[in-house]
Backbone:
């Protein structure tokens, strides 16, 4: 009797250990699969930039911010976070097109996510963040700053407008496009 | 010990009130806050008190109690213990003064280049140094016991307690390095620039593992108090030791999962930390099995039969029984959320949203604090020499906390998936994109109200305990195991595990840290909080 109880306890313990191991292996496997299959990756390259001079020259000067079509048909969005606004305040992107977001901060830590999408990036001063995505449907999203960046943090919201590719190309005819109302 | 607990609970209650005020401020129940700085000031105080002061003092007080109750020896170094407590209190006051003056509204996560008043950081360092005295005392006391009992098996409570102390010593090092070498020189004006990315890596070293330090007293209560309090037996002593050891080893090398969306850490390191984060769920899952089995024994000893019949026979009127049940339920939800956060790609959807707030409130406020309550109820008669008899009040208190925590955190998970960011002083509910989330903030506010009532009731029960009749207590005991076990040598000491802990953290953190240090030109100008651009 005593031995019976003991063996059944050991069996239960072993079963539980298998379940636990299974959960971990399954989740890790999912991560690997999605990394390889969907190429869904968080920022992975390390690139630095001097926040003190980024508005004077180089990639993040004001005239170079916003969305532009690349030669291969994809779209690159460059944006800047600073206390307490994003530049541009409204990001225009075409529907169903590979989008590369490149961003940095001119002062403190910022970050943003785009509602109803998986876009979620931290912006660190001194570093350039990079994020690849694709917007399936046309529409508008909100884009709040999600890292505390100072007293005005809660007012730091931008918008993302997803439009048909033709409409985007009309807006981007002069190189750069955004949807900030003038 | 009583001082530790009372100061801890006072800080806890003050922070609880601040938390509830924050929920009111950002709910649609009132107009926009006129000065958002007040909100961030309050968040800074709430997080610092709940995250650093309250659990540290509980762990310290409980640790001293364990030395006396399980090793059955007088605490060596009482004077040092008082010095440690003094430092924690001094540090708390030093830190809270600039916070309450609005000079350090930087939140409780140290993310430069935003820099607050130097005294805030110095105060936090003092709290940590005070707790290091406790770590040293735990080690010294265990050493003395070992000397007096050559070859003896260290009692489980002390074994777990010292594992927690070592865990904390190593874990707090990351934030300490960040504070001492990066932030404080800048806050004092000795230096003008700081590497923001590197600072976040150092902070992540502490940031996640600190949770396991909070968890330790709760888990010690699971293993060594619960089975005894409800009339059961501990199912397996070996498994208990293994769980604590696994926490020691795996707590540290996982913190980068907080930086999944950061640009300064490469994807290889991120992936490695995701895998290790998965592994740290193992000791918790082992614990759930062992404690459920121990509770089942109690149910069967009371005459329960069948597959689930034992559940009915459990002593549900016993506050400890209620606490462990509630704690497990909340731990289940919080832990599932944690596995989702760890999952690298799923993290995109929830990173820095209200989901995260929901997750860690479930783990800390739910699973852990409930056990702190139970622990206090259990220890109080032994600390005061007086009976603690308000069974009904205790049950009400636990129920209110449990329900309140669910009402508080479940809406946060929902709006988190909808993309609501955390750390916001207010929301523009007139914006159609935000409007649907308004109702959830009101629900959360109501949950917070329940928690405040519960917290107040908790303090009342303890205070009344001081005026109750004096009693002759039986000797304090910890849980008995089902059958005598031979403790493997490896599970009676820490050598191997400390080596693993340090080795793994050096591997997992050494690479990103050395890479960042080697990277030229990453320091950026510091930005004092509230400065005019």
Residues:
């Amino acid at each position: 009797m005593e031995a019976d109880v003991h063996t059944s306890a050991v069996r239960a313990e072993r079963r539980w250990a298998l379940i636990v191991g299974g959960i971990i292996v399954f989740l890790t496997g999912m991560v690997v699969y999605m990394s390889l299959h969907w190429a869904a990756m968080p920022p992975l390259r390390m690139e630095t930039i001097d926040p003190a001079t980024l508005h004077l020259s180089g990639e993040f000067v004001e005239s170079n911010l916003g969305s532009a079509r690349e030669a291969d048909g994809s779209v690159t969005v460059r944006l800047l976070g600073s206390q307490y606004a994003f530049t541009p305040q409204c990001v225009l992107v075409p529907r169903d097109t590979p989008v590369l977001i490149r961003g940095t901060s001119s002062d403190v830590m910022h970050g943003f996510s785009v509602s109803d999408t998986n876009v979620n990036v931290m912006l660190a001063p001194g570093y350039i963040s990079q994020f690849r995505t694709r917007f399936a449907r046309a529409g508008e999203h909100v884009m709040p700053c999600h890292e505390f960046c100072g007293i005005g943090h809660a007012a730091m919201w931008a918008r993302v407008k997803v439009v048909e590719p033709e409409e985007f190309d009309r807006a981007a005819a002069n190189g750069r496009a955004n949807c900030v109302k003038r | 010990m009583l001082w530790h607990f009372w100061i801890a609970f006072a800080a806890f209650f003050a922070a609880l009130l601040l938390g509830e005020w924050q929920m009111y401020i950002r709910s649609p129940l009132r107009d926009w806050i006129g000065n958002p700085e007040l909100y961030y000031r309050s968040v800074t105080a709430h997080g610092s008190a709940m995250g650093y002061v309250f659990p540290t003092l509980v762990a310290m007080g409980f640790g001293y109690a364990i030395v006396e109750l399980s090793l059955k020896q007088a605490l060596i170094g009482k004077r040092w213990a008082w010095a440690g407590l003094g430092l924690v209190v001094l540090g708390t006051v030093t830190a809270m003064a600039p916070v309450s003056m609005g000079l350090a509204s930087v939140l409780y996560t140290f993310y430069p280049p935003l820099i607050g008043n130097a005294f805030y950081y110095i105060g936090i360092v003092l709290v940590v140094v005070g707790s290091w005295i406790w770590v040293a005392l735990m080690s010294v006391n265990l050493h003395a016991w070992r000397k007096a009992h050559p070859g003896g098996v260290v009692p489980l409570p002390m074994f777990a307690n010292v594992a927690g102390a070592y865990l904390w010593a190593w874990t707090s090092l990351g934030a300490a390095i960040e504070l001492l070498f990066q932030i404080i020189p800048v806050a004092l004006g000795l230096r003008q620039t700081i590497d923001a990315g590197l600072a976040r890596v150092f902070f992540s070293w502490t940031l996640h593992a600190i949770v396991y330090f909070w968890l330790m007293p709760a888990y010690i209560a699971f293993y060594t108090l619960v089975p005894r309090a409800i009339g059961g037996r501990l199912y397996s002593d070996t498994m208990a030791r293994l769980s604590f050891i696994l926490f020691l080893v795996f707590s540290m090398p996982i913190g980068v999962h907080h930086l999944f969306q950061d640009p300064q850490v490469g994807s290889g390191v991120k992936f490695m930390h995701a895998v290790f984060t998965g592994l740290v769920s193992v000791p918790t899952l082992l614990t759930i099995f062992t404690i459920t089995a121990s509770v089942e024994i109690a149910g069967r000893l009371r005459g329960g039969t069948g597959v689930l019949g034992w559940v009915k026979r459990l002593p549900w009127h016993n506050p400890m029984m209620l606490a462990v049940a509630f704690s497990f339920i909340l731990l289940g939800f919080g832990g599932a959320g944690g596995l989702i956060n760890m999952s690298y790609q799923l993290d995109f959807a929830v990173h820095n949203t209200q989901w995260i707030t929901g997750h860690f409130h479930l783990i800390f406020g739910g699973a852990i604090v409930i056990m702190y309550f139970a622990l206090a109820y259990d220890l109080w008669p032994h600390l005061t020499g007086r009976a603690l008899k308000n069974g009904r009040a205790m049950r009400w208190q636990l129920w209110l906390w449990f329900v309140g925590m669910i009402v508080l955190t479940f809406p946060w998970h929902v709006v988190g998936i909808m993309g609501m960011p955390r750390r916001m002083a207010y929301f523009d509910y007139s914006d159609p994109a935000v409007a649907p989330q308004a109702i959830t903030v009101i629900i959360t506010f109501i949950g917070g109200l329940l928690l405040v009532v519960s917290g107040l009731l908790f303090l009342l029960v303890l205070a009344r305990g001081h005026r109750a009749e004096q009693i002759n207590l039986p000797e304090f005991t910890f849980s008995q195991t089902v059958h005598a076990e031979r403790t493997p040598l490896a599970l009676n000491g820490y050598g191997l595990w400390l080596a693993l802990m340090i080795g793994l953290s050096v591997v997992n953190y050494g690479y990103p840290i050395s890479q960042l240090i080697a990277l030229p030109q990453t320091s950026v100008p510091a930005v004092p909080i509230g400065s005019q651009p």
Chain B touches chain A through 74 residues (CB under 8 Å).
